[in-house]
Design a protein that fits this description.
Layout: H1 13-17, H2 24-36, H3 38-49, E1 58-61, E2 69-72, E3 75-76, H4 78-82, H5 87-90, E4 94-99, E5 105-109, H6 110-127, E6 135-139, H7 144-156, E7 159-162, H8 169-179, E8 183-187, E9 189-192, E10 195-198, H9 200-206, E11 215-219, E12 233-235, H10 236-239, E13 252-253, E14 257-263, E15 271-276, H11 277-292, E16 299-302, H12 309-321, E17 325-329, H13 340-348, E18 352-355, H14 357-366, E19 381-385, H15 391-401, E20 407-411, E21 445-448, E22 461-466, E23 476-477, H16 481-489, E24 493-494, E25 497-498, E26 500-508, E27 514-519, E28 523-526, E29 529-532, H17 533-540, E30 546-556, E31 560-569, H18 578-592, E32 601-604, H19 618-626, H20 641-651
Parallel strand pairs: 4-17, 6-7, 6-8, 7-14, 8-11, 11-12, 16-17, 16-18, 18-19, 19-20, 31-32
Antiparallel strand pairs: 1-2, 3-13, 4-5, 9-10, 14-15, 15-23, 21-22, 22-26, 24-25, 26-27, 28-29, 30-31
The protein binds 5'-O-[(S)-ethoxy(hydroxy)phosphoryl]adenosine.
Length: about 650
């Protein structure tokens, strides 16, 4: 079998000299150490990196796999790791640099962060009665108060669940109910493209009827009018004034939950991915240090939203745990024009810039020559995350943005992995376009054959797995032990034992480099947002005229993947107005999930290709959406004629 070879770019020599991991020998040494003495390796870093209130006595308890305990007996507090421990040497260093949509700026030092988080924690504890273990939903725009809220929860031991601000009231309600949250923290709204938009009304809608939520805290951001429910809603700006600036950090067990983050799976119901304290923060910090190689005086910017895992690990927890300066940006990268990010890079002298392929494609398409207008010489490392990046976008990023001197770290990971698992190291790994390269030191990442569990060879495809539990691995699906085991440890076995399966397909090249090829399940990546097709289907089914629906992904020039829905309507007397019907369906999606899940294409089909046992053949539907020829045998379908009919309609 011929193995694809891609051009190789060696690390920048000057950069490597001062990098934390300087060459592939150092990489290999670390990986060998982990392979030979797994617990010794992790125990070493947990001791070195984390500030313990009480030391741990056992590195890992694997007896109950896949329920694994790390750093048993250890006590710590993640907010202390992210803030207090820096006060001695970095109290006046910028912890967060905030830039608003309209260009307003704010710098928050570590000392200020400490006071702000303590006050926030006191408010939650004293005024709202939030206790250790309580769930707090955070539905916030990209403003520093979102980070304070997360860290305040961590400080008092409450479990936060951040819900992305683009989710609808229904989606928010589902997440609130599943987590049984007692408090919601939100804002009146924020600004986007110079215009105010609202969040508080969405919360009001989500809390209608029975709700576990007792109190809502509203941060003022855009100053627009909002309605207040007496006894439930409180103004952050008022209550915060009365709070003491010190708040003792709760002593947390290494395995006490830190947060839940809901993500899409292969059923209609999102999963509350649970991460715990010590293991998560350890790997967040280590990957920040290794993969971005942020130095003491650097300024690091990740453009994600705090509503996604990237925002958790690489805007808030990772950068702050290592004592870095992290930039938070409220706006969109193309407003007022596609030079906005580069203007910010110049102004703040950004050293590491981390974004999604979708953003790179948009910036490339709409502002190809914008980077040349700014001084981008401060940049050292560029990162991408969330979906496979295509070679043209990679090339533009490398040359036009990075000036052919910056490493591109194509970081592969997931909500469930807590932090990066496969990624280049900027000072060590020779990189190839659109290739995540190698597992990070300590991560036993392997591409396995799903049938035999054998590690696949060069040029062969298989399933991306991790064969040993690692500290920042998902600890559970909130309230559903079975789903946790079945979702991640059911599909692939190595030497007869279940291993963690990511849900992604991948292949090795001749150098053993890993390229991620995309999901093998019914999850699609729309603009880097992870979306379960079953979730979109469940939403569309709520439309009263819909009899049947199947949703698949379709390659999209900017978004990576777009959403393609095949809809069978109940009334078979033809569709009066297709456009109106499409609008109506998208309206249901908007209500049930939010704008991020709107369909790019809707095809009103006469029926769906099904097996005689009633299973929808999605493979056929995916091929039709892509305009590919159908190669599989369709003669065994319940009604083979439906395939040709749909194909003809799709071509129109
Ligand atoms: C995809 C985002 C290719 C993958 C951090 C994974 C990627 C899903 C990459 C997780 C990458 C993430 N190359 N694909 N570098 N990074 N993915 O949970 O399909 O929102 O399973 O976490 O994004 O999405 P999630």
């Amino acid at each position: 079998m011929s193995v694809e070879t891609k051009p190789v770019f060696k690390p920048n020599r000057e950069f490597s000299k001062n990098a934390r991991i300087k060459n592939m020998c150092e990489y290999q040494d670390l990986q060998d150490w982990a392979t030979e003495d797994y617990e010794g390796y992790w125990g070493h870093f947990a001791k070195e990196k984390l500030t313990w209130m009480k030391p741990f006595t056992n590195v890992m308890d694997n007896q109950n796999f896949p329920f694994v305990n790390w750093f048993e007996g250890g006590k710590l507090n993640v907010a202390v790791q992210c803030i207090d421990r820096h006060l001695e040497s970095r109290k006046n260093k910028a912890a967060i640099i905030f830039e608003g949509d309209r260009g307003d700026k704010k710098i928050i030092t570590y000392l200020e962060l400490y006071y702000n988080v303590n006050q926030f924690a006191n408010l939650l504890k004293n005024d709202f009665g939030v206790k250790k273990g309580d769930r707090v939903v955070i539905y916030m725009p990209m403003i520093p108060e979102a980070a304070y809220a997360m860290l305040a929860c961590a400080r008092i031991g409450a479990i936060h669940s951040v819900v992305f601000g683009g989710f609808s009231a229904e989606a928010l309600k589902d997440r609130i109910e599943d987590a049984e949250a007692k408090v919601v923290i939100t804002a009146d709204g924020a600004f986007r493209k110079d215009k105010p938009y609202m969040l508080k009304p969405v919360v009001d809608e989500a809390l209608k009827g029975n709700t576990p939520v007792q109190k809502v805290l509203v941060v003022e951001r855009n100053g627009e009018d909002v309605t207040w429910v007496a006894g439930r809603d409180y103004s952050y700006n008022e209550l915060i004034k009365n709070q003491k600036v010190t708040c003792e950090a709760e002593e947390m067990d290494a395995e006490d939950p830190l947060f839940l983050l809901y993500t899409s799976g292969s059923t209609g119901k999102p999963k509350g991915v649970q991460h715990n304290s010590a293991g998560y923060i350890l790997w967040a910090q280590m990957t920040m240090e290794w993969v971005f190689d942020v130095k003491e005086n650097d300024t690091y910017w990740c453009t994600a939203d705090v509503g996604w895992i990237t925002g958790h690990t690489y805007i808030v927890y990772g950068p702050l745990a290592m004592g870095a300066t992290t930039v938070m940006f409220e706006g969109v990268p193309t407003y007022p024009d596609a030079g906005r990010p580069w203007k910010m890079v110049e102004e703040y002298k950004i050293n590491q810039f981390y974004t999604a392929p979708t953003a790179i494609r948009v910036l490339h398409k709409t502002g190809e020559n914008e980077p040349a207008k700014y001084d981008l010489s401060s940049l050292k490392v560029l990162g991408t995350v969330g979906e496979p990046i295509d070679p043209p976008a990679w090339k533009w990023y490398y040359e036009a943005v990075g000036g052919s001197k910056c490493a591109i770290v194509d970081t592969y990971w997931q909500t469930e992995t807590g932090g990066h698992i496969v990624s280049p190291l900027p000072g060590a790994t020779p990189i190839k376009p659109a290739c995540a390269t190698l597992p990070l030191p300590g991560i036993m990442g392997e591409i396995l054959d799903p049938e035999t569990g054998r590690k696949v060879g060069a040029g062969e495809s298989g399933y991306m797995c991790v064969t040993r539990p690692w500290p920042s691995m998902i600890r559970g699906v909130w309230g559903d032990k079975d789903r946790f085991v079945k979702s991640y440890f059911g599909d692939v076995k190595k030497d007869g034992k279940p291993v963690y399966f990511t849900g992604d397909g991948a292949n090795y090249d001749a150098d053993g480099y890993i390229t991620i090829t995309g999901r093998t399940d019914d999850v699609i990546n729309v603009s880097g947002h992870r979306m379960g097709t079953a979730e979109v289907e469940a939403a569309i089914k709520k439309h009263p005229n819909v009899a049947e629906v199947a949703v698949v992904g379709k390659p999209h020039e900017i978004k990576g993947e777009g959403i393609f829905a095949y809809v069978v309507l109940k009334a078979d007397d033809g569709i009066a107005d297709e456009l109106e019907e499409m609008k109506a369906i998208n309206k249901v999606i908007q209500k049930e999930i939010g704008n991020i899940a709107l369909c790019d294409d809707i095809l009103f089909a006469p029926g769906l290709p099904k097996t005689r046992s009633g299973k929808i053949m999605r493979r056929i539907l995916r091929a039709i959406a892509k305009g590919e020829a159908i190669t599989q045998d369709i003669s065994t379908l319940e009604d083979p004629s439906v395939v040709a009919k749909i194909e003809a309609m799709a071509k129109k």
